[in-house]
Amino acid sequence: MDDKNFWFWLEVMSNIAQLESYNILIHDFNNNDLMEYLKHQDELLNKIIDQNEKIIELLKGGKNKSGY
User: Fold this and answer.
1) DSSP character string of 3-37
2) Which of 36, 58, 54 lies closest to 46 in space, CA to CA?
3) How far is it, in rounded angstroms, from Cα 66 to Cα 62?
4) How far apart are alpha carbons 49 and 65 in whole angstroms?
5) Are 67 and 58 in contact (CB under 8 A)?
6) Do the beta carbons of residue 36 and residue 46 sit within 8 Å?
7) 57: how many CB neighbours lie within 10 A of its CB?
């Protein structure tokens, strides 16, 4: 194997490694976006559950936690 062939294949392998690293970075970024979205949805769901519990207490004739 001559030096030019070695350096050519070394550059090819380097480019493949960079592309794979880029794909992993994009995948990780998408996972982070999804996690933030799910956290936001979880917060909204918790608010809805709290509101529903307050409504149920009011319908039962009792007082809710805030004293209404």
Assistant:
1) HHHHHHHHHHHHHHHHHHHHHHHHHHHHHHHHHHH
2) 54
3) 11
4) 14
5) no
6) no
7) 14
Let me know: does 54 contact 66? Beta carbons within 8 Å: yes
Residue 26 CA to residue 11 CA, distance in Å, equals 23
In order along its 68 residues, the chain shows pLDDT tens digits of: 677 888 899 999 999 999 999 888 888 878 888 888 899 999 999 999 999 999 999 999 866 555 55
- Two tokens at 65? 């936690």
Give the residue carrying structure tokens 């380097």: 14
| Rounded-to-integer distance, Cα 34 and Cα 44, Å | 15
With tokens 């982070």, the residue in question is 32
